[in-house]
Design goal:
- By secondary structure, the chain is α+β, with helices and mostly antiparallel strands.
- The chain contains seven helices and six strands.
- The model has no long low-confidence stretch (mean pLDDT 86).
Length: 224
């Protein structure tokens, strides 16, 4: 849970970081240079936040105001990076290995499906329905290779997130904007593993292996 003392600081600092990254992208594009990689962008964003925290601490000391604690500074740094480069308060759920699916309906509680199949409710990840729409638009702009609109004229959006997870968002066509994220798993990555787990028998294993070797077209259908 983020300390109330830093909640109001997240937005302004995130805007500062976002503007810096945007300026860097424009500058590189104008100069014909390659864009920054993911890790380089993260390092640049981190340096902007750290510089802001140093300036803030200096102002607090000069004004006789109690500075942020080390824990609060770390919370602010992580929250800003998640907002600018990740998915805001959704990011910790994406990073949680126990979470399999994430279902969000506006600012209502978030529904999670865990790896063991159980379903639990979690705290809202946005403070308003409008914030969820804005977050989806920001992610679409940052991750899409081309313009990806999300509005009344384009009320559905499919995206692949950097970790391979799939995001599906809707608005206008339902009472509240919604987002469903299915995290991509690689636990079962071979026919041998599928057979050992009892998901197919040996005959089907051999048939599928032969079909791949023969370069046959294979259609997989049915429920996920």
């Amino acid at each position: 849970m983020i300390s109330p003392a830093i909640v109001t600081s997240i937005g302004p600092v995130a805007r500062l970081v976002g503007e810096t990254l945007a300026d860097e992208r424009i500058s590189r594009n104008t100069a014909g240079r390659l864009p920054l990689g993911v890790e380089d962008e993260r390092q640049l964003a981190r340096s902007v936040v750290v510089r802001h925290l140093d300036e803030l601490a200096a102002r607090h000391l000069a004004d006789g105001v109690e500075p942020l604690t080390e824990r609060q500074e770390i919370e602010l740094l992580e929250a800003v990076l998640a907002k600018v480069l990740g998915l805001g308060r959704i990011q910790p759920l994406l990073d949680n290995p126990d979470v399999n699916d994430i279902h969000i309906r506006g600012a209502a509680s978030t529904r999670l499906k865990l790896m063991d199949g159980t379903r639990v409710d979690s705290a809202p990840v946005v403070d308003s329905d409008e914030e969820l729409v804005d977050l989806v638009r920001l992610v679409a702009t940052r991750l899409g290779r081309s313009e990806r609109r999300f509005d009344a004229a384009n009320p559905e959006l499919n995206l692949q997130l950097p970790d391979g997870s799939r995001l599906f968002a809707t608005m206008e066509v339902s009472a509240r904007p919604s987002v469903i994220i299915r995290k991509h798993r690689f636990e079962l990555s071979s026919l041998d593993e599928l057979e050992v787990r009892g998901l197919l028998d040996h005959a089907l294993h051999e048939f599928l292996a032969a079909a791949v070797r023969a370069r046959r077209n294979i259609v997989i259908c049915g429920g996920t």
